[in-house]
């Protein structure tokens, strides 16, 4: 099971993934005003590649955006490609 934790300092933030207490990945973002944030980097630890870690972090970001009526700008290549593949997530895009 993948556990996602969010950290936010009102300028930058991240969604960190943990599997069995071990850090499996991190997706970072930067606020672009009050209404949107930019996903700028996604990193998955090599030992956890292929286990859906990146997708779970992206889903957490989308759920956060929906809950707080925010929009996402995906600059990170992984996030951008994931949004293109998953039409059901695109409602949070600018």
From TrEMBL:
CDD domains (UniProt xref): NAT_SF
Residues annotated as domain N-acetyltransferase: 7-94
InterPro entries xref list: Acyl_CoA_acyltransferase (IPR016181), Gcn5-rel_NAT (IPR045057), GNAT_YJDJ (IPR031165)
Domain of life: Bacteria
SUPFAM superfamilies named in the record: Acyl-CoA N-acyltransferases (Nat) (SSF55729)
PROSITE patterns in UniProt: GNAT_YJDJ
Protein name as catalogued: N-acetyltransferase domain-containing protein
Organism expressing this protein natively: Chryseobacterium fistulae
């Amino acid at each position: 099971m993948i556990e996602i934790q969010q950290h936010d300092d009102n300028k930058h933030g991240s969604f960190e993934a943990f599997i069995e207490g071990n850090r499996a990945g991190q997706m970072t973002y930067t606020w672009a005003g009050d209404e949107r944030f930019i996903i700028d980097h996604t990193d998955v630890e090599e030992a956890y590649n292929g286990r859906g870690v990146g997708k779970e972090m992206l889903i957490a970001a989308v759920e956060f955006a929906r809950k707080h009526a925010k929009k996402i700008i995906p600059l990170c290549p992984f996030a951008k490609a994931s949004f293109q593949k998953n039409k059901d997530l695109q409602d949070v895009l600018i």
